[in-house]
Q: What sequence folds into this?
């Protein structure tokens, strides 16, 4: 079932969903199941699985020169999605990214997903590599998420990259995209950000999942801005609890989000790591209850490998 169909079927009830990371290369899918098993009591209709671009290592050769080697630390997104659907009987939403993939590789991945009856995808540009100052696309790849959305939409109408393919099978993907309540860090202002979001919707996007945020007023404002701008697709708030002291600076730096003054004051009062974690959990519970009362179609939790904490939050909210 499509993500948007789940929203329609819920008839106003706020659903719950989770996002997981594939295990590091060499890891077992059992680690995924061990993380998800405790969360299944909340009956999520779908699970998101992230995709990661290649990274580079430099290996010194006997000659003294360094060889540049590309590796993918977290492969397996498509296989994990198939395993989740088989084990739990729920839908899986693989992330597709521009970075590190050619258009041909993207098309082949979409064909595999279609064969597996996976008909939901989240289309993202992806991040720049750690050593790059700005995003650099793969040669023959997409530069922007809107181009990726366009390719998926083309396949939904039976149009493939090879112009010689006639009467190609029409796929039926439901396409999600990212939204930024505090604007994308590369956008000069919220209006520009909303313009490009609307263009992605016009290109075929069916719903929006937001970047994490810690101030519900930012989300409320984002919803209003989107509706005023003519963006009428469902908007799902993305949530993550702050549970470690280093995240006070790391999350704003990494994800370009602000922490409310009241929240920071409470975190700074915490004298121990455990006390700080409790403050972060309680804040996320408060956010979740308020967003649920607002009628959000779904609360989407970024688990980041910490399913026990997410389970505590979900128990308090659902």
A:
């Amino acid at each position: 079932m499509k993500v948007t169909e789940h929203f329609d079927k819920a008839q106003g009830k706020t659903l719950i969903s989770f996002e997981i990371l594939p295990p590091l290369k060499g890891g077992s899918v059992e680690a995924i199941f061990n993380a998800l098993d405790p969360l299944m009591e909340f009956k999520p209709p779908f699970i998101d699985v992230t995709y990661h671009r290649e990274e580079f290592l430099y290996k010194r050769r006997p000659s003294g020169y360094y060889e540049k080697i590309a590796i993918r630390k977290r492969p397996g997104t498509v296989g994990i999605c198939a395993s989740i659907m088989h084990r739990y009987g729920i839908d899986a939403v693989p992330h597709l990214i521009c970075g590190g993939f050619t258009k041909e590789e993207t098309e082949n991945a979409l064909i595999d997903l279609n064969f597996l009856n996976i008909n939901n995808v989240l289309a993202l540009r992806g991040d720049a590599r750690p050593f790059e100052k700005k995003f650099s696309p793969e040669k023959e790849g997409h530069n922007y998420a809107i181009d990726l959305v366009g390719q998926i939409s083309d396949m939904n109408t039976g149009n493939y990259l090879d112009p010689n393919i006639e009467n190609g099978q029409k796929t039926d993907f439901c396409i999600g995209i990212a939204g930024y309540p505090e604007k994308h860090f590369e956008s000069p202002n919220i209006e520009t950000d909303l313009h490009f979001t609307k263009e992605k919707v016009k290109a075929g996007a069916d719903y929006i999942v937001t970047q994490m945020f810690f101030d519900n007023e930012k989300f409320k404002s984002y919803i209003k801005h989107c509706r005023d701008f003519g963006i009428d697709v469902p908007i799902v708030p993305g949530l993550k609890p702050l549970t470690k002291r280093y995240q006070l600076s790391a999350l704003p730096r990494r994800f370009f989000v602000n922490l409310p003054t009241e929240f920071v004051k409470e975190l700074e009062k915490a004298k121990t790591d455990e006390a700080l974690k409790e403050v972060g959990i309680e804040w996320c519970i408060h956010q979740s209850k308020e967003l649920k009362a607002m009628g959000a179609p779904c609360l989407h939790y970024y688990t980041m490998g910490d399913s026990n904490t997410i389970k505590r939050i979900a128990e308090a909210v659902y």
User: Anything to note?
Assistant: The beta strands are 15-20, 46-49, 55-60, 66-71, 91-97, 120-124, 174-179, 207-212, 235-239, 298-302. The two ends are 23 Å apart (CA to CA). DSSP finds eleven helices and ten strands in the chain.
